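Per reviewer request, we include the raw input and output of the structure prediction for the construct analysed in the revised manuscript.
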Amino acid sequence: MPVISVLMPVYNAELYLRQAIDSILSQNFGDFEFLIFNDGSTDRSKEIIQSFTDPRIHFIDFEYNQGYVALLNIGLQKARGKYIARMDADDIAHPDRFQKQYEFLEQNEEYILCGTNFRVVDGTQVVKLPADDEDIKLKLLYINAFCHPSVMFRASIVRAKKISYSHEHMPFEDYELWVRICEFGRLKNLQEVLLYYRIHDNNISLKQRSEAQQELKQQTQLDYIRKFFRNMDFKCSEELILHKLFFKNSGFTPEELKSVGQLIRSVMDKNVTYAVPTKAVHSLLVNMYFYRCTTSTYIGLQAFFLANQFTLKGVSVFQNLKLFIKAILKYKPAIE
């Protein structure tokens, strides 16, 4: 039985596919099976896959497009390895990727999932993701803390918990999966660049989402807020206030800032436990609130006064002075 099962869906990826496959077959850790799914490609993808003769490749061909989430779920069912690794057909894996992820998971049985930092292909940008379990679980409150094609996870968790990807949550099915599995064990991102990630117009995650998908994404975010703050026994209205704090894309009104600030104070006044240290939770809430005040300076000095009313600790004098000046300069009086 292979130690690792690699899952890679392919759809019209002829430009980058050969390089992606080569990067897996050239791994320094070679005990794996490579499940490649052709998702009804209309370009030369099938021909390129079939040109490889490595016996570790298991080619599964679909005449019609199934959608990559459906293929990933088939892959989860077919995988025979102790670990399951993801790979995309347009990315490049570092030769040491599997070796380092395998060694980490073997040596740390309490960890169920291990991702890595990555570099954007054809650029100098290195994306550093949160490293340790506590930081990852904290940052999942407002970002996707993993690069999906970089992850490796324990197949035993998938089988024991009957885990699969949710097709209806595409293209944020990975975040929804992390939200569900994070309570089953510890999470890790190796702080090395072990994947080269390609950004282009065909990235599914970059495509515009429908209104229904946006609603599902918000519900997933609320599910994690509810799970993380479960001991606070929040009302639905309070969960929505926290969601605004973490995810709102525009500035806040004075009323919104006041309601968020009051809720943060209530959270900090209660002696409850979280999946991470309480001090880290309070620090995140204070810093996030102060940031929201700095991006809402069009309301004038109210942003400054509210920031000082609800963030009494953790903000430097320089930051406060900067907010004061910005609130004066950026103020936009309401038009009657």
